[in-house]
# Entry
Amino acid sequence: MAKNKNNVVIKGMSGKFADMLVFSQRFGQTIVGKVPLRSGTSTAGQLAVREKFSQATIYAVSAISDAATKKDYEDMAIPSQSAYNLAIADFFNAPQILSTDTAAYSGNIGGLIKVKAKDDFRVAKVTVIISKANGTVVEQGDAVSTNGVDWVYTATIANSAYSGNKVKVQVKDLPGNLTEAESTLA
# Structure
């Protein structure tokens, strides 16, 4: 792909030329590339990627229509990257759970479960679910962030028979991507 530097003949051009070149505008520059080749029928994988990209586009339009979210994406974007492009990239990347620390939870009200989670843009929500081995939910709620990476859930229900219980952590980012992890309390 070539970039135009003040060539008065092609400056500002966009579109296809003679089925050989494609001109586009990006941040005030004219970009020149060859026409992409299409190879017959699309595979199931290609159709799935197109559908996911379509959903990413819908999310990005929605995200940048909100002034505060658009500003957050703009602030995080690198040079030559738009808020829209960053929102699309965010859609494709699920958050990660780095660790779950249950050492400060002993079944008492006020016990703490600490979660470290990150995302390429921002973790929006961390939910902690404590359940018995048979799946019966003891309690659940949202953790509170201290710095965007560290999250703390404070227990609200006494749970004297907590040994063997499961702790499920659910982490969501702004586009709604969900990552889950489960551990067993000792």
Remarks:
- The chain has a mean pLDDT of 91.
- The domain at 96-184 is CATH 2.60.40.1220 (Immunoglobulin-like).
